[in-house]
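re: ur question from yesterday

yeah so i grabbed the chain u mentioned. its 1024 aa long if i counted rite. heres the sequnce exactly as i have it in my notes:
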Amino acid sequence: MPSRTRLVPLFLFGSGFCALIYQTTWLREFRLIFGASTAATAAVLGIFMAGLGFGGIILGRISEKRARPLAFYAWLELFIALSAAVSPVLIFYARKFYIDFGGTMAAGMLNGTLIRLAMATIILGPSTFLMGGTLPAAARAVVKPDDVSRRALGSLYGVNTLGAVTGALFGTFYSFEHFGNHFTLWGATAINLIVAAAAFIVAKLLPKLEAGEKGEVSEEETDPVVSKVFVWFAAAVVGFAFFLMEMVWYRMLGPLIGGSTFSFGLILAWALLGIGLGGVAYALFDLKRSASLRAFAVTCAAEALFIAIPYALGDRVAVATMLLRPLGTLGFYGHVTAWSEICLLVIFPAAFISGIQFPLLVALLGKGRHGVGVQTGAAYAWNTIGALLGSLAGGFGFIPLLSAPGVWKLVVIVLSAVAIVAIGIRSDEQTGWVRALLPLGTAILAPVLMLISVGPTAFWRHSPIGIGRLKLYDVSPNDLRNAMQDIRRHIISDVDGVESSVGIQNADGISFIVNGKSDGNTRSDAGTQVMSGLIGAVLHPNPKQAMVVGLGTGSTAGWLAAVPTIEHVDVAELEPVVLNVAKLCAPVNRHALENPKVRVIIGDGRELLLTSRTNYDLIVSEPSNPYRAGVASLFTREFYESVKNRLNPGGIFLQWVQSYGIDDRTIETFYRTLGAVFPNIESWQPQTGDLLLVASKEPLQYDASALRERISSEPFKQAMVASWRGTQLEDFLAHYVGNLKMTRAIQNLEPGPINTDDRPVIEFAFARSIDAPNGFQINNLLKTARATHCDRPAINESLIDWDWVEFARTPSNQAKGPVTFFQIEIAATNLAIQAKPEAANYIDQIAPIVPADAEAIRALLNWKQGNAKEATEALVRFFRIAHEDPWPDPALINASLALAEEIVHSAQSPEIATSIYDVLSTPLCVWNSEFAREVRIISIAKAADGNRFGERTLRTLGALEPNTVWNRQFLETRKNAYNAVHDPRANQATQDLEQFMRHEALSSDPAALTREFEKYTGATPQSP
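ran it thru and got these structure tokens back, copy pasting raw so excuse formatting
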């Protein structure tokens, strides 16, 4: 490369940096208008990639006719910078038009999508069209006539992509957080102008080229190595496959590395880094001959193999991610290091090979400088078209239809097929079949490897590894396997939707897991999910219209719809698959989806509020955690302004905020941001770990008599008991945290930013500090609020028993005896354990309110008093209720399951064992305490079979296959049971126990375990 043209890769580095900044900024900005749905993102991304493709074809041809192609490149960069610089202004007017028009709510999905495409085309079309011509123009300026393999193109392509890597990292890890979207974009335009100016200077120093110059190669040598049609087809297919695989990486790695903006930015950066280094590596290869089909086949086969290997490793990748998690003790960048190691394993090798492919494809179209602009543009266009189709197919068809692992397999098959086709095509190089064995064998090995592998299971996709809640760092192999099989066994549904992967878990109630993070549980989150909307309905004097952002289990919407004054509840849900969750949770959400008052709108809640013409009395926002990618846009000042505009006079907005795994400054940012829009904010704690910020334009009015009457009516009465174990207004006020005075104190603690659309500081700061030690402690806030007398609303205090409120806040404090309903339950349980007759009086008080709890405590009392028959009868009544009613106290369910097993083994009565087995042989309502039930039912079944391995025992054991409990007691029972009845699974059960014992020997007394192993295997010790 001539010395003066050696600066050109630097220009390409700068343009790649700017292009990536533009792309990510535009995606962020358009999501704020169109919403974060796949359809909205695809519209923007589609225009971006289509512009690149058309630019590559048209401008590539024009560059071929330019005597100074580098000057042409400089003009392109200049106009890219200018068009990008004005894009924020155009986006502002597009936002105004789209909101005034009414978006997809007014136009429908089809017309709404067409409007999105039209607006994105007007704003992004000019810039992206010009971007498509930069690489062909630069290639014509740099590629020498005698460069038969076009190595210089590989250098440009690789360095350009490395610039994009830098842009991705700079934007994600610094610029967007500190400067915001607009200043980040304008900073990129300034760099772009510098690149254009420098390119103009260098272009003047270079000699002119003749249009269509062939230089030092003959006419024959300029002919394509293979058919242009095949090369274009191959460029499209490999682009399709790689972009499809990139979507799979986003979907599959999100659960492992957290699903925040940082983790997604890192996935993009590693993919681009691999491509960039692959392009540079191609340029460094000392290729004396022109490109060959065999070389292209090798790249396709190698890419397929490198994609297949992480799949074949399966859950080992998830385990490795978990074991790397402690690097987070080094701080945020310790986490980044751990994530990078996983991306290096999963993404980089395939991306590196992909980076070699593109310049290789261009080299298959010709040699040297002749036609390089046209050919680069054409290959770029077809590669981009393939990538666009891969994006659309992944988001709208393949991933929802085949699942992410299924698409993973598909990509390997497609690349292997391309490799085999490339080997089979006859070309001028006359490659022999012997030399084709390597790519052919690799192309066949890759899909076979995937077909014989289990691949990623629910442990990878639905365990809390990415959020740091699975911490099995120092456990035995058996303990690790037991945890893995528990997770696999309890995922009863695993579906890839359009927007996300959704798993349904039944270990203890129904939990739904979105991209690896639990976003709600029917029982443990009932305090928030049931009461978040009802707090607003209690405080509002006459609520009629309500809106809920996020369907989830359906509890918030369903209980709101049960309020007599409510006329309709609109629910915005981004992922259609979540409707399946709400259907399964019907017993806890009052059959929300069957209620004609409830209308579920599939779409982005932000777009709905921006474009809707409907006003509401109550709006409840209960999205996922704000550190998750894209969710912070539901916590910005602009979002709250849209909420405020949709509230009727006297309307109330209720915002859920997590109070765990968060630092003080982020909590302050929440309060400051909401306070920038709403002058009145009060704080509630619907359950431990959650805050509910209740915001309104006018101060809330607390009429004690009216509130007391409302709480005593349905559905509030049942909801209070079910989710809070409360019955009185005082129990309701016990969840009050702080008034407006406390809010203002938090807002004024120290100066700080607010969360805006342009600079969503929560999205980044929260993700940096998640689960950091010494974070925010809600108990400190509660103590401070009480100490400063901010823990009471503006209410006639003489009408409230504040001692009762304090007892409800601290139910363990029974200095004056049990006062609240929950304290009565606690007292009854404690007295029953002591076999005290006084427990019966409290049980009688509980029975009219929660009959199930009363029966559970009565069973315990009878057992402790030695009345086995009466205890069994009460226990059976309790479990019969628990099969229909989801609301018995979870602690009492677990205690009753333990009591059932104790009674069966102590009573030694087949009749008792059979009656308890019959009532426990099927899961309780919404799978409450399912893990505890399935473990304890085994010994109960054996007792019901007359302490032998009969039909009940086998049925119970079979229900746990194939991901069985992995501990010694269970494995011994399983082996003995299957062997006793000559079950076909006996051999596998024996092998599993032997494997368990071998692993146990690694961490226990070798001599003792050798004897145990010999006992179970029948092996005879060898004489010394």
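noticed a couple things. The radius of gyration is 33 Å. also Residues 213-222, 427-431, 1019-1024 have pLDDT under 50 and may be disordered.
anyway ttyl
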